[in-house]
Design goal:
By secondary structure, this protein is mostly helical. It has helices spanning about 1-5, 15-25, 30-50, 80-90, 95-110, 115, 150-165, 185-195, 205-215, 220-225, 235-240, 245-265, and strands at about 125, 130-135, 145. It has a 3-stranded antiparallel sheet with strand order 1-2-3. Strand 1 and strand 2 (about 130-135) form a beta hairpin.
Length: about 270
């Protein structure tokens, strides 16, 4: 966007010009990126309208112009034998210790990858064994509490000397001061490095893995869904339920971590 429109007066940018940029992305086969870029453009134009810098958002004329997004299957390993292979591969991972911790943190907490990347030290209370994520960082814009198993506490304590001086628990490998979060593809590349293909496992797959196994183990679906931070259909109730089922969730998260450890050790 910036090389094409960065020096232009925003009032002069037209819908056909934006579409040319989006078509270039479509021609490269990155349909999802084209949709994201159009959304970013729309946000900028709407801000310009709100602040008197433009009269309208020209992206409104492009609705339906892009190829539709195809729903993506989130690759996840769910069979115990294959989960065991994954955990053993993670244990033997020869990349950086921070990335290795990111893999295990993903498995233990099954929080969305973006929320893990953005995790800040100030959000964690290790004494209370809780990670409190603000609504600003959550996909559903609801605050979320993640009970921390003993294994996660130990992992964080081992990371503290390495990244505790900075903002982020899992900083970018290029950020010596810890002021930038880990790249969105770091965990994915680690999985590929360990030999797991696109069809087998992705960074988001830790959520599917946990959801499948926890449901099969008999945990109450509402407890699992609340821990996955899936949105509550009742919007009024959703504003107050981020701590709902917290005692059950604490027990479930510790049992889940113990299950993973026992599976790896078998």
């Amino acid at each position: 966007m910036l090389p094409v429109f960065g020096k232009r007066d925003i009032r002069e940018i037209t819908s056909p010009e934006i579409l040319v940029l989006l078509r270039r992305l479509e021609d490269r086969g990155i349909i999802d990126t084209a949709h994201r870029v159009m959304n970013y453009c729309s946000q900028i134009f709407r801000y310009a309208v709100a602040t008197g810098r433009a009269e309208r958002d020209p992206t409104a004329d492009l609705r339906g112009a892009l190829q539709p997004l195809k729903s993506k299957h989130r690759a996840a390993i769910t069979e115990p034998a294959k989960i065991q292979q994954l955990l053993r591969a993670m244990d033997a991972f020869d990349g950086t210790y921070i990335v290795k911790c990111g893999l295990w943190f993903s498995a233990y907490t099954f929080v969305r990858p973006g929320e893990i990347r953005q995790a800040e030290w100030k959000e964690f209370n290790l004494e209370d064994a809780e990670w409190k994520i603000s609504e600003k960082k959550m996909k559903m814009r609801r605050p979320h509490i993640v009970p921390l198993a003993k294994q996660v506490i130990e992992l964080l304590e081992s990371l503290k000397p390495l990244t505790g001086h900075g903002t982020y628990v899992f900083p970018s490998l290029r950020s010596s001061k810890g002021t930038q979060p880990m790249s969105e593809n770091t965990i994915l590349y680690a999985l590929r490095r360990m030999g797991f293909s696109d069809d087998e496992m992705c960074a988001h797959g830790f959520r599917g893995m946990a959801s499948t196994r926890l449901n099969e183990q008999g945990w109450h679906p509402d407890v699992i869904e609340r821990q996955l931070a899936h949105v509550e259909r009742n919007s009024v109730r959703a504003a107050y339920n981020h701590a709902e089922y917290l005692p059950e969730r604490r027990k479930m998260m510790q049992t889940w971590a113990d299950y993973l450890d026992s599976l790896k050790a078998q």
